[in-house]
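<purpose> Linking amino acid order to shape
<body> The protein record starts here
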Amino acid sequence: MKVILLEEDRVQEVADGYARNYLFPKKLAIPATPQAVKQMEVRAEANRKIREDEKTQAQELALKLEAAEIIIRADAGEEGKLFGSVTAQDVARAIFETHNLEIDKRKINLNDHIKALGEYSATVKLHSQINAQLKLRIEKK
């Protein structure tokens, strides 16, 4: 029997008993009628367009972030050593304050531990295929 697996949006050949006794009652699949297959294809096309739009938006955001230099002001001692360290949350806050872009702190990867004044870089994962390189400058308050 041909069924449409709902989680994967694909047509699969399975045993009749498996479909009737397991897949259909648990709402994991539906029979692969011509109408259901057509709806699946329409849904897949809509999902593909949404993914393309998300990727385009992520590319535009990456260009904005890579062109900008994020300045973070922090308390530091005489020799330029910070009292504490700069975290991904601090970077996300600085991006929001300067560019009004909300970035999840979990998507920011600081390449080095930032414990002194100076220039650093960080990577922001915007999409599964798109990363942006940030330029950070840590200055004394």
Notes: The chain has two domains: 2-57, 59-140. DSSP finds three helices and nine strands in the chain. The longest strand covers residues 130-140. Residues 34-67 form the longest helix (34 residues).
